[in-house]
Design a protein that fits this description.
The protein is α/β, with parallel strands linked by helices and about 450 residues long. Helix content is about 40%, strand content about 20%. The protein contains 16 helices and 15 strands. The strands form three sheets. Strands 6-5-4-7-8-9 form a six-stranded parallel beta sheet, sandwiched between helices. The chain starts with 7 loop residues before the first helix and ends with a strand.
């Protein structure tokens, strides 16, 4: 289906307005998802009492209080907590980008993402040493955000080297598996993940504050669930490895663990490690989608939210959303379809510069050529794959503008090289790292 297009000046005005609207909606969502806003809603200190969601901690009762903040929002979360709870906090911060300033009393590690680096393993080792030896008079505050799986890591066996861990992460990321299945395997190969960090910190009191970049209802998938009972099993890992043909992609040392069925089980619900553990999700993808819903409704759009394509292949997800958008646009003058979550891209042996959001956006550009449709797809962390962009904003003119520049969209898609093309025609979205991560947003508009 193609929408009739007006004369060029009117058409340009329509596309310009839709692009501006989409950008405004995305940036408003980023503002609503800020860590300070979220913490202010869920955390406060009154006298010597620290309130975290529905729980209260009488700080003087603890002989030792430490903070472990890991993930892309590691620094921001720790800084915000200190502003609320006071300056008498210390611990470890592991994040993917060195902040402009350091917090006194905290050790910093700049871990790798999406692949671990040497600092990731150093962070994992330091964290385990810091929480070891805790007692019932200890309080450990875990601040966990997206990206922590790679940013802080320690292999479950000393026989697994950094190269082995990196090769495993590459194999998993490129497998096309959804994040929950990727993290199931990560949990069983890590000394931190799948509740093992909670085991290391027990019997201390533990409070985990979560900024979630995983599907709603699966909090133990965030950062591969270091402080939560694991809902996945070793048997799940063997099935996932078979489903995605990982046998040849995994390094020999890890492949041997699967072939010999030597994966050790992670702690489950009811394990004594979780007797004094509590969890509070203060920010998630729903916060971002709700912010866009509010903006679109105020703008007079007919609005629909469709998160059903979460963890789908990008082409299937794009086709589904475009179909839903065209259906929604029937009978209304202004339509907005919002979709949260992430899509998957199975990358070939070689790839260029881009990410899942730009791959989806460029694919959409091919499908909507000539239509009065605009599609924005971007990550709330400000980073899409191995590119400097957060994502992309395409419309019915994108394909024509690329062709006029001598750029081949089909070739860029085949080579997983969307960023150079989209950036060359001004369709990339650049925010820089946001210090946050609540998954991706897709906003589709039609006038």
């Amino acid at each position: 289906m193609c929408f009739p297009l007006p004369a060029d000046p009117a058409r340009e005005a329509i596309f310009r307005e839709m692009r501006e609207r989409a950008r405004e909606m995305f940036h408003q969502a980023l503002l609503e998802c800020s860590i300070p806003h979220a913490f202010a809603r869920h955390i406060r200190r009154e006298g010597d009492s620290l309130f975290i969601a529905d729980d209260v901690y009488d700080l003087p009762k603890f002989a030792r209080t430490v903070v472990i903040s890991t993930g892309k929002a590691g620094h921001t979360m720790a800084e915000t907590l200190r502003e609320i709870a006071g300056a008498d906090m210390e611990g470890i911060i592991a994040c993917s980008n060195a902040p402009s300033h350091a917090l006194f009393g905290f050790r910093y590690f700049t871990g790798g993402h999406p692949l671990p680096n040497a600092a990731s393993l150093q962070a994992g080792d330091a964290i385990l040493k810091l929480v070891a030896g805790g007692s019932e008079r200890s309080l450990v505050l875990f601040l966990i955000s997206g990206g922590a799986s790679a940013i802080a890591e320690k292999p479950v066996s000393d026989r697994l080297s950094l190269d082995d861990v990196v090769a495993t992460y590459k194999a998993l990321v490129h497998s096309g598996a959804p994040i929950a299945e990727i993290n199931a395997i990560r949990k069983h190969l890590s000394a931190l993940k799948g509740g093992r960090l909670a085991q290391a910190a027990a019997p201390a009191y533990q409070a985990s504050v979560l900024v979630s970049d995983v599907p709603d209802g699966a909090p133990d998938a965030l950062a591969s669930g270091p402080t939560m009972p694991d809902t996945t099993t070793a048997a799940d890992c063997y099935a996932i490895a078979q489903r995605y043909n990982l046998a040849t992609a995994l390094p020999a040392s890890v492949r041997a663990l699967f072939q010999r069925r030597l994966l050790q089980e992670t702690p489950k619900s009811g394990d004594p490690a979780f007797a004094r553990s509590r969890y509070a999700t203060v920010l998630s993808n729903a916060t971002a989608t709700n912010a866009v819903v509010e903006q679109a409704t105020l703008g007079g759009f007919a609005v629909e939210v469709d998160n059903s394509c979460d963890d789908w292949d990008y082409e299937r997800a794009a086709d589904h959303l475009l179909h839903r958008m065209r259906q929604l646009h029937k009978g209304v003058s202004r339509a907005c379809l919002i979709s949260g979550g992430e899509v998957t891209v199975k990358v070939g042996a070689t790839s260029g510069i881009g990410g899942r959001n730009q791959q989806l956006a460029l694919y959409c550009a091919q499908q909507i050529a000539g239509e009065n449709l605009t599609v924005l797809s971007a990550g709330t962390d400000g980073i899409d794959g191995n590119s400097p962009a957060a994502g992309a904003l395409v419309d019915g003119t994108t394909l024509a503008r690329a062709t006029q520049r001598g750029l081949d969209a089909a070739q860029a898609l085949a080579k997983f090289d969307a960023y150079p093309l989209l950036d060359a025609i001004g369709d990339s979205i650049m925010t820089g790292p946001t210090g946050n991560n609540v998954r991706d947003l897709r906003i589709l508009l039609a006038y």
